[in-house]
Amino acid sequence: MAPGKQERVVIVGKTRMGGGVCVGGMIESTGRSVRILPPGGFCHPPDTEFQVGEVWQMTLRRRDGLEPPHTEDHDESCAMRLGSIEALARFVQRVGAPHTGEPSGLFGGALRFRNAGSAYLPKVTPVPDRSVEFWITPRVMVHSMRYDKSRYQMQGRPSLSLPYVGHDTPLPTIPAGTLVRLSLARWWNNPQAPEEGPGCSLQLSGWLGMPVDAQQIWPKNFPRPTNASSDDEIPF
User: Fold this and answer.
1) Residue 92 to residues 69, 102, 133, 165, 177: CA-CA distances in angstroms?
2) Residue spans of the chain under pLDDT 50
3) Torsions phi, psi of 89, nearest 5?
4) Which residue from 4, 5, 133, 188 lies 20 to 30 Å from 215 (Cα-Cα)?
5) Residue 66, exposed/middle/buried by CB under 10 A (0-12, 13-18, 19+)?
6) Residue 23, H or E segment
7) What is the pLDDT of residues 205-236, one digit of tens each?
């Protein structure tokens, strides 16, 4: 087992995972993404103390046997909240090297896109060394519900449809130019397309630095999402 190391971690994401939440962070000094796990566990409880935008000091121990692209898993211990970071989106843009441009360039161009607009990472060689990426969206994304599951559809062409697995209530729209956090689900075999082989589905984990005027009131009679997990995958 790798030795533990004291780090300052900025919390940048919380995603739904069954009855709990996955907590995503970035090492403050390097921008490296980490998935913060309770020792021996797979997720935190829904009422976890970790909140997006906070800075924590904690001991991190990288888990053994990680399979790319999911290289971020770390056990956390001795966590102490230090405060909150100002201008979270600016921090992530400075240290996180977000992708700009069309979806085809995400994860080094290794993704494949289905006709319906959903995307996944196939078993390519080499497999990307990360399962999290930040992206500045080129076009507006619109929320919808499909089979009681929450999704965002990017307008225009090429099409992109993403399951939303974030912990926050979704907004009706995400404006173009918003910094969002993407993640790759765990390896699975899509029963609807067995010819694809093992793949990791692309998911939307959340957004950072949303403009104030984009914080829209939820439209009357617009269906809210359930707490169901995304399309049979385990979110980061």
Assistant:
1) 20, 19, 11, 20, 14
2) 212-236
3) -60, -40
4) 133
5) middle
6) strand 20-27
7) 999 976 544 444 333 333 443 333 333 333 33
